[in-house]
Amino acid sequence: MKTLLQKSILISFLTLFLGLSQQISAQVSGDFRSTTSGNWGTSTTWQRYNGSTWDNSGSGSNNPGQTPTSTSSVFIQTAHVVTLTADEACNDLHIASSTNATPSASTLGRVALATFTLSVNGKMRNYYATLNNIPGTSQANGYNIYPFTGSTGKVSIVGSTRTVFTSGEWGATITTPATGIFPLEVNLTNNSQTATFGTNTKSTSFNLVTGIVLCATVSMDNGTIGQGNVTIGSGTTLSSSATSSNKVFQRTNSSRAGTLTIAGTLRLSGGTPQFSVNSVSNTGTVEYSNTGNQTFIVATNSGAAMSYNNLTISGSGIKTLALATAVAGTTTVNTGCTLSTGAFTFTNNGTANIDGSFQINQGGWGGNTGTYNYGSTGTLVFNNSSGSYNVNSGDTWWPTSNGPVNVTVQGAGTITMNVARTVPSSGTPGLFLLSSPKTNGARGNALTFTGTV
After folding, report:
1. I need a labelling partner for 399 at 20 to 30 A (CA). Which of 58, 162, 202, 318 fits?
2. How many Å apart are CA 356 and CA 1, to the nearest integer?
3. Among the listed residues 37, 143, 146, the one whose alpha carbon sits nearest the alpha carbon of residue 97
4. For strand 154-157 and strand 117-120, is the pairing parallel, antiparallel, or unpaired?
Protein backbone atom coordinates (compact mmCIF):
# COMPACT_ATOMS: atom_id res chain seq x y z
CA MET A 1 0.00 0.00 0.00
CA LYS A 2 2.85 2.41 0.93
CA THR A 3 4.63 1.70 -2.38
CA LEU A 4 1.44 2.33 -4.37
CA LEU A 5 0.88 5.59 -2.50
CA GLN A 6 4.46 6.71 -3.20
CA LYS A 7 4.06 5.89 -6.90
CA SER A 8 0.75 7.76 -7.00
CA ILE A 9 2.35 10.84 -5.42
CA LEU A 10 5.28 10.66 -7.86
CA ILE A 11 2.98 10.38 -10.88
CA SER A 12 0.90 13.31 -9.63
CA PHE A 13 4.04 15.41 -9.11
CA LEU A 14 5.38 14.61 -12.59
CA THR A 15 2.02 15.40 -14.14
CA LEU A 16 1.92 18.73 -12.32
CA PHE A 17 5.53 19.51 -13.27
CA LEU A 18 4.99 18.74 -16.94
CA GLY A 19 1.82 20.76 -16.93
CA LEU A 20 3.59 23.74 -15.40
CA SER A 21 6.44 23.39 -17.90
CA GLN A 22 3.97 23.62 -20.76
CA GLN A 23 2.16 26.55 -19.16
CA ILE A 24 5.41 28.52 -18.91
CA SER A 25 5.59 28.59 -22.74
CA ALA A 26 1.85 28.35 -23.41
CA GLN A 27 0.13 30.84 -25.66
CA VAL A 28 -1.65 33.81 -24.07
CA SER A 29 -4.08 36.30 -25.48
CA GLY A 30 -2.36 38.55 -28.01
CA ASP A 31 0.25 36.00 -29.14
CA PHE A 32 0.83 35.36 -32.84
CA ARG A 33 1.63 32.21 -34.79
CA SER A 34 2.59 31.98 -38.43
CA THR A 35 -0.12 30.48 -40.58
CA THR A 36 1.89 30.47 -43.80
CA SER A 37 5.18 31.69 -45.19
CA GLY A 38 5.09 35.42 -45.85
CA ASN A 39 6.21 38.86 -44.75
CA TRP A 40 6.39 39.69 -41.03
CA GLY A 41 4.56 42.97 -41.63
CA THR A 42 1.67 41.37 -43.54
CA SER A 43 -1.32 40.47 -41.37
CA THR A 44 -2.31 37.44 -43.44
CA THR A 45 0.99 35.77 -42.44
CA TRP A 46 -0.37 35.50 -38.88
CA GLN A 47 -3.09 34.18 -36.65
CA ARG A 48 -3.70 35.95 -33.33
CA TYR A 49 -4.72 34.17 -30.11
CA ASN A 50 -7.83 35.53 -28.40
CA GLY A 51 -7.49 33.53 -25.19
CA SER A 52 -9.21 30.40 -26.44
CA THR A 53 -8.81 30.16 -30.22
CA TRP A 54 -6.57 31.47 -32.98
CA ASP A 55 -8.15 34.12 -35.22
CA ASN A 56 -7.23 34.61 -38.85
CA SER A 57 -6.50 38.11 -40.12
CA GLY A 58 -9.78 40.01 -40.39
CA SER A 59 -11.59 37.68 -37.98
CA GLY A 60 -12.61 38.13 -34.33
CA SER A 61 -9.89 39.72 -32.18
CA ASN A 62 -7.72 39.92 -35.30
CA ASN A 63 -10.08 42.30 -37.12
CA PRO A 64 -8.70 44.45 -38.56
CA GLY A 65 -5.71 42.23 -39.26
CA GLN A 66 -2.73 42.79 -36.97
CA THR A 67 0.97 41.94 -36.88
CA PRO A 68 3.27 41.25 -33.88
CA THR A 69 4.65 44.08 -31.75
CA SER A 70 7.31 44.23 -29.02
CA THR A 71 4.78 42.91 -26.46
CA SER A 72 3.62 39.96 -28.61
CA SER A 73 5.09 36.51 -28.32
CA VAL A 74 5.58 34.83 -31.69
CA PHE A 75 5.59 31.19 -32.82
CA ILE A 76 7.31 30.48 -36.15
CA GLN A 77 5.72 27.19 -37.10
CA THR A 78 7.18 24.19 -38.87
CA ALA A 79 8.29 24.74 -42.50
CA HIS A 80 7.26 28.42 -42.48
CA VAL A 81 9.62 31.21 -43.57
CA VAL A 82 8.68 34.66 -42.25
CA THR A 83 10.50 37.53 -43.99
CA LEU A 84 11.39 40.93 -42.57
CA THR A 85 10.92 43.89 -44.91
CA ALA A 86 11.68 46.39 -42.12
CA ASP A 87 12.98 46.31 -38.54
CA GLU A 88 10.54 44.32 -36.39
CA ALA A 89 10.11 43.34 -32.73
CA CYS A 90 8.48 40.71 -30.55
CA ASN A 91 8.41 39.56 -26.93
CA ASP A 92 9.24 35.82 -26.78
CA LEU A 93 10.41 34.18 -30.00
CA HIS A 94 9.54 30.46 -30.41
CA ILE A 95 10.95 28.75 -33.51
CA ALA A 96 10.06 25.18 -34.47
CA SER A 97 13.06 22.94 -35.19
CA SER A 98 10.95 20.11 -36.62
CA THR A 99 7.72 18.19 -36.13
CA ASN A 100 9.50 15.80 -33.76
CA ALA A 101 12.53 15.68 -31.47
CA THR A 102 14.96 15.26 -34.39
CA PRO A 103 15.87 18.65 -35.93
CA SER A 104 15.21 18.82 -39.66
CA ALA A 105 16.34 21.27 -42.34
CA SER A 106 13.11 20.77 -44.29
CA THR A 107 10.61 21.18 -41.46
CA LEU A 108 12.14 23.89 -39.25
CA GLY A 109 10.66 27.38 -39.06
CA ARG A 110 12.87 30.26 -40.23
CA VAL A 111 13.04 34.03 -40.11
CA ALA A 112 14.51 35.74 -43.17
CA LEU A 113 16.21 38.81 -41.71
CA ALA A 114 17.53 40.26 -44.99
CA THR A 115 19.20 43.53 -43.90
CA PHE A 116 16.91 44.23 -40.95
CA THR A 117 16.94 43.82 -37.14
CA LEU A 118 14.56 41.60 -35.21
CA SER A 119 14.44 42.90 -31.62
CA VAL A 120 13.55 40.30 -28.98
CA ASN A 121 12.19 41.70 -25.70
CA GLY A 122 11.65 38.32 -24.04
CA LYS A 123 13.25 34.89 -24.40
CA MET A 124 14.15 32.63 -27.30
CA ARG A 125 12.84 29.07 -27.38
CA ASN A 126 13.33 25.99 -29.56
CA TYR A 127 10.33 23.67 -29.79
CA TYR A 128 8.98 20.89 -31.96
CA ALA A 129 5.36 20.30 -32.95
CA THR A 130 3.16 19.48 -35.87
CA LEU A 131 1.41 22.42 -37.52
CA ASN A 132 -0.96 24.35 -35.24
CA ASN A 133 0.04 22.36 -32.14
CA ILE A 134 1.06 25.31 -29.98
CA PRO A 135 3.06 25.65 -27.71
CA GLY A 136 4.66 22.33 -28.71
CA THR A 137 7.44 20.64 -26.76
CA SER A 138 10.57 22.50 -25.69
CA GLN A 139 13.86 20.91 -26.63
CA ALA A 140 17.61 21.44 -26.39
CA ASN A 141 18.70 19.47 -29.48
CA GLY A 142 19.45 22.61 -31.47
CA TYR A 143 18.69 23.03 -35.15
CA ASN A 144 19.82 21.21 -38.27
CA ILE A 145 20.64 24.56 -39.89
CA TYR A 146 20.42 28.09 -38.48
CA PRO A 147 16.79 29.26 -38.16
CA PHE A 148 17.66 32.64 -39.71
CA THR A 149 18.74 33.76 -43.16
CA GLY A 150 19.86 37.10 -44.54
CA SER A 151 22.85 39.28 -45.38
CA THR A 152 23.45 42.03 -42.81
CA GLY A 153 20.37 41.43 -40.65
CA LYS A 154 20.63 40.50 -36.98
CA VAL A 155 18.75 39.33 -33.90
CA SER A 156 19.01 41.88 -31.08
CA ILE A 157 18.22 41.08 -27.45
CA VAL A 158 16.78 44.31 -26.04
CA GLY A 159 14.98 45.52 -22.91
CA SER A 160 15.67 44.83 -19.26
CA THR A 161 17.03 42.11 -16.93
CA ARG A 162 15.80 38.58 -17.64
CA THR A 163 16.76 35.05 -18.74
CA VAL A 164 17.01 34.90 -22.54
CA PHE A 165 18.00 31.27 -23.05
CA THR A 166 16.74 28.58 -20.66
CA SER A 167 18.20 25.11 -20.20
CA GLY A 168 15.93 22.62 -21.94
CA GLU A 169 14.57 25.30 -24.28
CA TRP A 170 17.64 26.02 -26.38
CA GLY A 171 20.75 24.20 -27.55
CA ALA A 172 24.13 25.05 -29.03
CA THR A 173 24.05 22.33 -31.71
CA ILE A 174 23.84 23.39 -35.36
CA THR A 175 24.36 20.36 -37.60
CA THR A 176 25.21 22.37 -40.73
CA PRO A 177 26.38 25.82 -39.58
CA ALA A 178 27.38 26.94 -43.09
CA THR A 179 23.66 27.17 -43.96
CA GLY A 180 21.84 30.23 -42.68
CA ILE A 181 22.97 32.97 -40.29
CA PHE A 182 22.47 33.94 -36.66
CA PRO A 183 24.18 37.27 -35.87
CA LEU A 184 23.33 37.67 -32.18
CA GLU A 185 23.43 41.06 -30.49
CA VAL A 186 22.70 42.04 -26.88
CA ASN A 187 21.65 45.69 -26.65
CA LEU A 188 19.82 46.15 -23.34
CA THR A 189 18.38 49.39 -21.98
CA ASN A 190 21.57 50.26 -20.08
CA ASN A 191 24.75 48.66 -18.72
CA SER A 192 23.14 47.71 -15.39
CA GLN A 193 20.62 45.35 -17.06
CA THR A 194 21.50 41.64 -17.25
CA ALA A 195 20.76 39.01 -19.89
CA THR A 196 21.23 35.49 -18.53
CA PHE A 197 22.14 32.71 -20.93
CA GLY A 198 21.05 29.65 -18.96
CA THR A 199 22.55 27.30 -21.54
CA ASN A 200 25.39 27.34 -24.07
CA THR A 201 24.72 29.19 -27.31
CA LYS A 202 25.95 29.09 -30.89
CA SER A 203 25.61 31.92 -33.39
CA THR A 204 27.49 33.14 -36.45
CA SER A 205 28.68 36.19 -34.47
CA PHE A 206 28.12 37.72 -31.03
CA ASN A 207 28.09 41.43 -30.20
CA LEU A 208 27.51 42.78 -26.68
CA VAL A 209 26.55 46.42 -27.23
CA THR A 210 24.90 47.39 -23.93
CA GLY A 211 24.36 45.48 -20.69
CA ILE A 212 25.69 42.49 -18.78
CA VAL A 213 25.64 38.91 -20.07
CA LEU A 214 25.89 35.94 -17.69
CA CYS A 215 26.83 32.83 -19.63
CA ALA A 216 28.97 29.71 -19.90
CA THR A 217 30.21 28.77 -23.41
CA VAL A 218 29.59 31.13 -26.32
CA SER A 219 30.29 29.61 -29.74
CA MET A 220 30.59 31.51 -33.02
CA ASP A 221 30.35 29.25 -36.06
CA ASN A 222 29.64 30.07 -39.69
CA GLY A 223 31.09 26.81 -40.90
CA THR A 224 34.67 28.08 -41.36
CA ILE A 225 37.54 27.68 -38.88
CA GLY A 226 38.90 31.01 -37.66
CA GLN A 227 35.74 32.98 -38.44
CA GLY A 228 32.82 34.16 -36.32
CA ASN A 229 33.69 37.18 -34.18
CA VAL A 230 32.77 38.08 -30.59
CA THR A 231 32.75 41.69 -29.36
CA ILE A 232 32.43 42.96 -25.79
CA GLY A 233 31.58 46.64 -26.15
CA SER A 234 32.80 49.56 -24.05
CA GLY A 235 31.07 49.74 -20.67
CA THR A 236 29.60 46.24 -20.97
CA THR A 237 30.43 43.05 -19.06
CA LEU A 238 30.43 39.47 -20.23
CA SER A 239 30.66 37.12 -17.24
CA SER A 240 31.46 33.49 -18.06
CA SER A 241 31.48 30.51 -15.71
CA ALA A 242 32.96 28.16 -18.35
CA THR A 243 35.91 26.05 -17.22
CA SER A 244 38.32 23.42 -18.55
CA SER A 245 37.28 21.91 -21.90
CA ASN A 246 33.95 23.73 -21.72
CA LYS A 247 35.52 26.78 -23.27
CA VAL A 248 34.57 30.42 -22.79
CA PHE A 249 34.72 31.15 -26.55
CA GLN A 250 35.11 28.75 -29.44
CA ARG A 251 33.83 27.73 -32.86
CA THR A 252 33.51 24.11 -31.84
CA ASN A 253 35.23 22.27 -29.02
CA SER A 254 38.02 21.32 -31.44
CA SER A 255 38.26 24.48 -33.55
CA ARG A 256 38.68 28.21 -33.03
CA ALA A 257 36.38 31.13 -33.74
CA GLY A 258 37.37 34.49 -35.25
CA THR A 259 38.43 37.68 -33.46
CA LEU A 260 37.73 38.38 -29.78
CA THR A 261 37.43 42.12 -29.21
CA ILE A 262 37.34 43.33 -25.59
CA ALA A 263 36.48 46.99 -25.08
CA GLY A 264 34.49 46.37 -21.89
CA THR A 265 35.02 43.72 -19.19
CA LEU A 266 35.48 39.98 -19.64
CA ARG A 267 34.81 38.47 -16.21
CA LEU A 268 35.93 34.86 -15.72
CA SER A 269 34.81 32.72 -12.78
CA GLY A 270 35.79 29.26 -14.05
CA GLY A 271 38.61 27.55 -12.17
CA THR A 272 40.67 26.74 -15.29
CA PRO A 273 39.16 28.71 -18.17
CA GLN A 274 40.07 28.03 -21.81
CA PHE A 275 39.22 29.73 -25.07
CA SER A 276 39.81 29.24 -28.76
CA VAL A 277 39.87 32.24 -31.11
CA ASN A 278 41.95 33.32 -34.08
CA SER A 279 43.04 36.69 -32.66
CA VAL A 280 42.51 38.99 -29.66
CA SER A 281 42.10 42.77 -29.57
CA ASN A 282 41.91 44.03 -25.99
CA THR A 283 41.49 47.64 -24.90
CA GLY A 284 39.30 46.67 -21.95
CA THR A 285 39.60 44.61 -18.77
CA VAL A 286 39.95 40.92 -17.97
CA GLU A 287 38.79 40.04 -14.46
CA TYR A 288 39.32 36.79 -12.54
CA SER A 289 36.46 36.64 -10.04
CA ASN A 290 36.23 33.11 -8.62
CA THR A 291 35.72 32.78 -4.87
CA GLY A 292 38.44 30.12 -4.90
CA ASN A 293 41.72 29.49 -6.71
CA GLN A 294 41.96 30.11 -10.45
CA THR A 295 44.47 29.61 -13.23
CA PHE A 296 44.63 32.29 -15.93
CA ILE A 297 42.84 31.52 -19.20
CA VAL A 298 44.76 29.52 -21.81
CA ALA A 299 44.32 29.17 -25.56
CA THR A 300 43.55 25.85 -27.27
CA ASN A 301 43.27 24.60 -30.87
CA SER A 302 46.29 26.71 -31.94
CA GLY A 303 44.38 29.85 -31.03
CA ALA A 304 45.72 33.24 -29.98
CA ALA A 305 46.78 33.79 -26.38
CA MET A 306 44.94 36.29 -24.20
CA SER A 307 46.33 39.81 -24.21
CA TYR A 308 45.83 42.15 -21.26
CA ASN A 309 45.11 45.84 -21.17
CA ASN A 310 43.69 46.08 -17.64
CA LEU A 311 43.66 43.15 -15.20
CA THR A 312 41.45 42.79 -12.12
CA ILE A 313 41.80 40.11 -9.42
CA SER A 314 38.61 39.82 -7.35
CA GLY A 315 36.62 37.28 -5.34
CA SER A 316 39.09 35.38 -3.16
CA GLY A 317 41.77 32.72 -3.42
CA ILE A 318 44.95 32.60 -5.51
CA LYS A 319 44.92 33.52 -9.21
CA THR A 320 47.95 31.99 -10.91
CA LEU A 321 49.54 32.77 -14.26
CA ALA A 322 49.39 29.94 -16.81
CA LEU A 323 52.16 31.47 -18.94
CA ALA A 324 54.28 34.63 -19.09
CA THR A 325 51.85 37.54 -18.89
CA ALA A 326 52.18 41.27 -19.59
CA VAL A 327 49.63 43.92 -18.60
CA ALA A 328 49.71 47.21 -20.51
CA GLY A 329 47.42 49.25 -18.28
CA THR A 330 46.21 48.92 -14.69
CA THR A 331 46.43 45.80 -12.55
CA THR A 332 44.12 45.73 -9.53
CA VAL A 333 44.45 43.07 -6.82
CA ASN A 334 41.56 43.40 -4.39
CA THR A 335 41.68 42.68 -0.64
CA GLY A 336 41.48 38.97 0.12
CA CYS A 337 42.90 37.96 -3.27
CA THR A 338 46.34 36.85 -4.40
CA LEU A 339 47.96 37.34 -7.79
CA SER A 340 50.59 34.62 -8.17
CA THR A 341 53.29 34.48 -10.83
CA GLY A 342 53.38 30.70 -10.76
CA ALA A 343 56.58 29.68 -12.57
CA PHE A 344 56.28 32.56 -15.05
CA THR A 345 57.16 36.22 -15.44
CA PHE A 346 54.54 38.84 -14.70
CA THR A 347 55.34 42.04 -16.60
CA ASN A 348 53.65 45.17 -15.34
CA ASN A 349 53.90 47.81 -18.05
CA GLY A 350 51.49 50.16 -16.30
CA THR A 351 50.41 50.54 -12.68
CA ALA A 352 49.71 47.70 -10.26
CA ASN A 353 47.56 48.52 -7.24
CA ILE A 354 47.91 45.77 -4.63
CA ASP A 355 45.35 45.69 -1.81
CA GLY A 356 45.56 41.91 -1.58
CA SER A 357 48.76 39.90 -2.15
CA PHE A 358 51.35 39.71 -4.91
CA GLN A 359 53.04 36.31 -4.73
CA ILE A 360 56.29 35.34 -6.45
CA ASN A 361 56.63 31.57 -6.81
CA GLN A 362 59.63 29.38 -7.49
CA GLY A 363 60.73 30.09 -11.07
CA GLY A 364 58.52 33.18 -11.31
CA TRP A 365 59.48 36.82 -11.48
CA GLY A 366 57.74 40.16 -11.07
CA GLY A 367 59.74 41.95 -13.75
CA ASN A 368 61.46 45.32 -13.45
CA THR A 369 59.00 47.64 -15.18
CA GLY A 370 55.93 49.63 -14.22
CA THR A 371 54.76 51.10 -10.93
CA TYR A 372 53.58 49.10 -7.90
CA ASN A 373 51.42 50.67 -5.21
CA TYR A 374 50.62 48.60 -2.12
CA GLY A 375 47.54 49.62 -0.13
CA SER A 376 46.97 49.39 3.61
CA THR A 377 46.49 45.60 3.35
CA GLY A 378 48.97 45.03 0.53
CA THR A 379 51.23 42.01 0.99
CA LEU A 380 54.29 40.74 -0.87
CA VAL A 381 54.71 36.96 -0.67
CA PHE A 382 57.81 34.91 -1.55
CA ASN A 383 56.87 31.30 -2.19
CA ASN A 384 60.08 29.59 -3.28
CA SER A 385 60.45 25.93 -2.39
CA SER A 386 64.25 25.94 -2.41
CA GLY A 387 67.25 28.22 -2.73
CA SER A 388 67.18 31.97 -2.16
CA TYR A 389 65.27 34.61 -4.06
CA ASN A 390 67.29 37.76 -4.78
CA VAL A 391 65.77 41.18 -4.19
CA ASN A 392 67.56 43.79 -6.32
CA SER A 393 67.38 47.55 -6.70
CA GLY A 394 65.65 47.31 -10.08
CA ASP A 395 62.80 45.13 -8.81
CA THR A 396 59.85 47.48 -9.14
CA TRP A 397 57.52 45.02 -7.40
CA TRP A 398 59.17 46.02 -4.05
CA PRO A 399 59.25 49.81 -4.25
CA THR A 400 60.87 52.12 -1.72
CA SER A 401 57.66 54.16 -1.41
CA ASN A 402 54.10 52.78 -1.32
CA GLY A 403 55.73 49.41 -0.73
CA PRO A 404 54.20 46.32 0.87
CA VAL A 405 52.73 46.71 4.34
CA ASN A 406 53.31 43.01 4.97
CA VAL A 407 55.99 40.64 3.66
CA THR A 408 55.72 36.84 3.92
CA VAL A 409 58.50 34.36 3.16
CA GLN A 410 56.96 30.90 2.89
CA GLY A 411 58.11 27.53 1.63
CA ALA A 412 61.56 26.08 2.27
CA GLY A 413 63.39 28.82 0.38
CA THR A 414 64.76 32.17 1.59
CA ILE A 415 65.27 35.68 0.28
CA THR A 416 68.53 37.59 -0.19
CA MET A 417 68.33 41.35 0.15
CA ASN A 418 70.74 42.96 -2.33
CA VAL A 419 69.14 46.29 -1.50
CA ALA A 420 67.79 47.84 1.70
CA ARG A 421 64.02 47.97 2.19
CA THR A 422 61.66 49.10 4.95
CA VAL A 423 58.48 47.18 5.89
CA PRO A 424 56.24 48.99 5.60
CA SER A 425 57.77 51.85 3.65
CA SER A 426 55.43 54.24 5.49
CA GLY A 427 52.19 54.38 7.43
CA THR A 428 50.60 51.69 9.60
CA PRO A 429 52.91 49.07 11.15
CA GLY A 430 53.02 45.86 9.15
CA LEU A 431 53.99 42.21 9.49
CA PHE A 432 57.10 40.33 8.39
CA LEU A 433 56.32 36.61 8.47
CA LEU A 434 58.58 33.59 8.08
CA SER A 435 55.87 30.98 7.70
CA SER A 436 58.04 27.90 8.29
CA PRO A 437 61.16 27.28 10.38
CA LYS A 438 64.34 28.21 8.47
CA THR A 439 67.85 29.56 8.98
CA ASN A 440 68.72 32.91 7.42
CA GLY A 441 65.22 33.29 6.00
CA ALA A 442 66.14 36.83 5.04
CA ARG A 443 69.74 37.86 4.57
CA GLY A 444 71.85 40.50 2.89
CA ASN A 445 71.28 44.25 3.17
CA ALA A 446 69.23 45.86 5.91
CA LEU A 447 65.55 45.13 6.35
CA THR A 448 63.82 47.69 8.58
CA PHE A 449 60.56 46.64 10.25
CA THR A 450 57.86 48.73 11.82
CA GLY A 451 55.40 46.27 13.26
CA THR A 452 55.53 42.55 13.96
CA VAL A 453 58.20 40.03 12.95
Report:
1. 318
2. 62
3. 143
4. parallel
